[in-house]
Design brief:
Number of helices: 13
Shape: elongated
Oligomer: single chain
Mean pLDDT: 88
Order of helices and strands: HHHHEEHHHEEHEEEHHHEEHEH
Strand content: 15-25%
């Protein structure tokens, strides 16, 4: 089989490698006939959906011993996210990545799956389900034996949080994940906040204090107090723990003999353009076979 023909058909149709290989075999390596064959099978429809908005979907976490993966895959509608096929697809992708050492999306999508790659699987799911499927992001974590993973999945996968602690326990790590799911910290520690972000916040707060007519020395003290409040809003360790607001999250963990190494929080669709529903256009598109 000519690899360049397979590549050419993939570019034209957006179908997976194995589907293109089969299409060419069935049609004596005729690109035009193979393309029509893919369209008849509904496989080439995936290419038409490539430009559509996929901001719904699910996030999930899979843990196996000392390795864990958190990932997010998007689709176009919440209805599809609840589909059993989509959920099995999520689990398959998580299992495949968990058994690898992939660090980037490109490396993950190039991983072998079945008779092709994960990228082929994503493309075939777009054709099977009938919506654009987009593999958005993942994080692989490894731990030592004296460290603990804590996972929490909220609303069936709309929010997932994976925590890694040194010391403490799995239960403490899960409590931290639950807190992070609710309170949306942007950073774990104060030290992680970029200096320019802090300076910009100080500038805004100083202008506000001066506008209130405060003397410069008083304004400076007010700004420092407000900066500490700012840290409590965006830094996990500085936030009041939701289960016991008499301690911060950092103090809660240290009181239990632990230290936060990492916390990854995925909220499905955050930062993505949302699909604008227009049912009249959707029906018209379906009637036209799009």
């Amino acid at each position: 089989m000519n690899a360049s023909l397979i590549r050419e058909l993939r570019d034209i149709s957006g179908a997976g490698m194995m589907d293109c290989k089969k299409a060419l075999e069935e049609n004596d390596n005729d690109i035009k006939k193979a393309t029509e064959w893919l369209r008849e099978k509904g496989i080439a429809k995936a290419a038409k959906k490539a430009g559509r908005i996929a901001a719904e979907g699910l996030s999930t976490i899979k843990i196996d011993g000392n390795k864990a993966v958190i990932l997010e895959i998007n689709c176009e509608t919440d209805f599809v996210a609840k589909n059993e096929k989509f959920q099995k697809f999520m689990d398959d992708v998580a299992t495949t990545i968990l058994s690898s050492n992939a660090k980037t999306n490109e490396e993950a999508l190039a991983l072998s799956y079945d008779q092709g790659t994960l990228n082929d699987y994503v493309t075939s799911m777009t054709a099977t389900i009938g919506e654009k499927i987009s593999f958005r992001r993942f994080t692989l974590l490894e731990k030592n034996d004296d460290e603990y993973f804590g996972s929490y999945i909220h609303m069936g996968g709309k929010i997932s949080v994976l925590t890694l602690l040194k010391g403490a326990s799995e239960e403490v790590a899960k409590d931290v994940s639950m807190h992070a799911a609710a309170m949306r910290p942007e950073y774990v520690t104060k030290e992680q906040v970029p200096a320019d972000q802090v300076e910009n916040e100080k500038k805004i707060l100083t202008e506000q204090a001066m506008a209130e007519g405060k003397p410069a020395n008083i304004a400076e003290k007010m700004v420092m107090g407000r900066i500490n409040k700012y840290y409590k809003e965006i830094c996990l360790e500085e936030q009041d723990f939701v289960k016991d607001n008499s301690v911060t999250v950092g103090k809660f963990v240290s009181n239990n003999g632990g230290k936060i190494i990492d916390v990854i929080r995925y909220e499905v669709g955050e930062g993505l353009e949302k699909r604008q529903e227009n049912f009249a256009e959707e029906v018209a598109a379906q009637m036209n076979g799009e």
